[in-house]
Amino acid sequence: MAHVCDPTLVFRQLFEKVSSTYTYVLADANTREAIIIDPVIETVDRDIKVINDLNLKLLYAVNTHVHADHVTGSGQIKQKLPGVKSVIFDMNAKADIYIKEGDSLQFGSKKIEFLSTPGHTNGCVSIVCHTAKSVFTGDALLIRGCGRTDFQQGNSALLYDSVHSKIFTLPDDYVVFPAHDYTGQTNSSVGEEKKHNPRLSKAKEEFIKIMANLNLPYPAQIDRALPANLVCGIQN
Ligand SMILES: N[C@@H](CCC(=O)N[C@@H](CSS)C(=O)NCC(=O)O)C(=O)O
Ligand SMILES: [Fe+2]
């Protein structure tokens, strides 16, 4: 199980295997106030059980962006745990709270800070928890990879700048927790990705060429996911 260096932060990394999505639960170990990052609709009941088993009080369900490969669980979580607020950067998507660059959210004595990291989508954010020396990168930075830039306002030059100016300027020992992994890895570090990321360690021009030649098939659930995620995963 993945760990973070803050002993008073409750931390769980959860996996949804159809879309290879990581969902994260973070909580203040004293007050038990919690947030969830990138929940998936199919695993909402599992996530709520974890939250209840650990005696946590969920305050916020945060999406790092409008996902194209799975339907968010935020809307169902709000139905099942009244009082939870959904949080997103992208103003096109329905949410209770719209965050912007530099905003932070508090849960107990713990704080997460939002960095705007566009390029995979315009509305992508990375979420930093300094006490845990961790960054939740969504699809901007994956372990030895990065988010594709061939749909949803994707822009590889912008993604390169986002990662280099916002994520790669964090300390090298900060742990990188992505929204997906397709190879069985759970986390990396800023220093490791700066050195070994086969795309983002290259010069910008080369990165742009690599991204233009990925030729990836569209995510299997894209037609269902994109419209649903504009309305928090719940369609009438
Ligand atoms: N096969 C998966 C989709 C894989 C995929 O396209 N992943 C996205 C992140 S979800 S928007 C991506 O950016 N991948 C980058 C890469 O290099 O793989 C499915 O059908 O769901
Ligand atoms: Fe994505």
TrEMBL record:
<dbReference type="GO" id="GO:0050313">
    <property type="term" value="F:sulfur dioxygenase activity"/>
</dbReference>
<dbReference type="InterPro" id="IPR036866">
    <property type="entry name" value="RibonucZ/Hydroxyglut_hydro"/>
</dbReference>
<protein>
    <recommendedName>
        <fullName>Persulfide dioxygenase ETHE1, mitochondrial</fullName>
        <ecNumber>1.13.11.18</ecNumber>
    </recommendedName>
</protein>
<keyword id="KW-0007">Acetylation</keyword>
<dbReference type="GO" id="GO:0046872">
    <property type="term" value="F:metal ion binding"/>
</dbReference>
<dbReference type="InterPro" id="IPR001279">
    <property type="entry name" value="Metallo-B-lactamas"/>
</dbReference>
<dbReference type="GO" id="GO:0006749">
    <property type="term" value="P:glutathione metabolic process"/>
</dbReference>
<dbReference type="Pfam" id="PF00753">
    <property type="entry name" value="Lactamase_B"/>
</dbReference>
<keyword id="KW-0809">Transit peptide</keyword>
<dbReference type="InterPro" id="IPR051682">
    <property type="entry name" value="Mito_Persulfide_Diox"/>
</dbReference>
<keyword id="KW-0408">Iron</keyword>
<dbReference type="InterPro" id="IPR044528">
    <property type="entry name" value="POD-like_MBL-fold"/>
</dbReference>
<comment type="similarity">
    <text>Belongs to the metallo-beta-lactamase superfamily. Glyoxalase II family.</text>
</comment>
<keyword id="KW-0479">Metal-binding</keyword>
<feature type="domain" description="Metallo-beta-lactamase">
    <location>
        <begin position="20"/>
        <end position="180"/>
    </location>
</feature>
<dbReference type="GO" id="GO:0070813">
    <property type="term" value="P:hydrogen sulfide metabolic process"/>
</dbReference>
<comment type="subunit">
    <text>Homodimer. Monomer. Interacts with TST. May interact with RELA.</text>
</comment>
<dbReference type="GO" id="GO:0005739">
    <property type="term" value="C:mitochondrion"/>
</dbReference>
<keyword id="KW-0223">Dioxygenase</keyword>
<keyword id="KW-0560">Oxidoreductase</keyword>
<keyword id="KW-0496">Mitochondrion</keyword>
